[in-house]
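Lab notes, practical 5.
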Amino acid sequence: MSLQNEMPIPQTTVKQERVAHSVPPPHPEAGAGTVNIAEEVVQAIRRPGSIKKWWGDLLWASMIPVVVVVLWQWAGGAGWISPEFMPTPWVILKSLIRLIASGDLAYHIGVSLQRTLLGFAIGGMLGLVLGCITGLFRKAEHLLDPSIQVLRLVPHLAIAPLIILWFGFGETSKIAIIISGSFFPLYINTYAGIRQVDGKWFEVGRVLEFKPYQRFTRLIVPGALPSILLGVRLSLAVSWISLVVAELVGSTAGIGFMINEAKQNSDTPVIFVGILIFAVVGKLIDSLVRLLERKWLHWRDTYSG
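Output from the prediction step:
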C-alpha cells in the first residue's frame, strides 16, 4: 500500500468540496446597507441597449389597452354604446382631470393606501411569523396548521358582515377585513417555502458548524425567499381587493367611498375613474414587489421565456 493512500484527506478539503456543490447563494449580512431601488432601475435603463429594450417591452405591453381604448372611443362616438352606462374614455379622462384639480383624488388615494398598508403590515407580519413557526417546528405545525387551514377555507369576504357587526363601521372594521385577507397568502407561502428548502443545505450547515440563527439567516431565509416574496405579492393583492369591500360599506373617505358616492349620484364617469385607480395603483404595488424580486433573487437561473 502506498503512502499516498494512507494519508488522511484534510477536513478542510472535504468542507470546501461540500460547500462548492451544496452551499446556497450568499445572503447579505444585516446592516450591509439599504437597497436603493430607484438608482438601480436608472442604472439598468442606462446600460447599452436597455432603453431600446425597455421601450420595446412597453410598446408590446400597451398594445391591447390602446386597441381597447380606441375601439371604445370610436363605438361611443358612433352612438353604439349608451353614455349613461358606458361613457367614452374622453369623458372619463375629463372627470379624472377634474378630480385631480380639486384635490379629492389625492386625498381618497392617500386614505386608501394608508388603510391597505396598515392592514397588510399587521396581517402580513402575523402570517410571516406563524408561517416561520409552523415551517420550522413540526410540533407547532401539528398544533396550529390544522386550525389555520380550516379558517383559510372560509372566504374572508364572507366574514366581513360579522366583522362589521363586531367592530361597527369605523376604521377598526376596515383594517380587520384587510388583515383577514392579507394573512393567509403570506402564511401559506412562508410555510411552503421553508419546507421546500433543500435538505443538503442543512448538511452544509452541520459541516460548517452553523449555529441555529446562522442556519436560519444563511440557509433557510435565502432558500425560502422566492416563496415568501410570492406570498408578499399575493398578500398585497388580496389586501387591495379587500379594501374595496371595506370602503364600500359605511366609509366616509377612500376610493371605495368615492365609487359608492358616484353610484348614488349616477355619476358613471367617476365610477370608472375609481376602477381605473384601483387597477393602476394595484399594478404599481405589484411592480414594486417584482423589482424587489429581481434584486434579491438575481442568483436564480430560471426560464425567462
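Observations recorded by the TA: The longest helix spans residues 212-248. The two ends are 56 Å apart (CA to CA).
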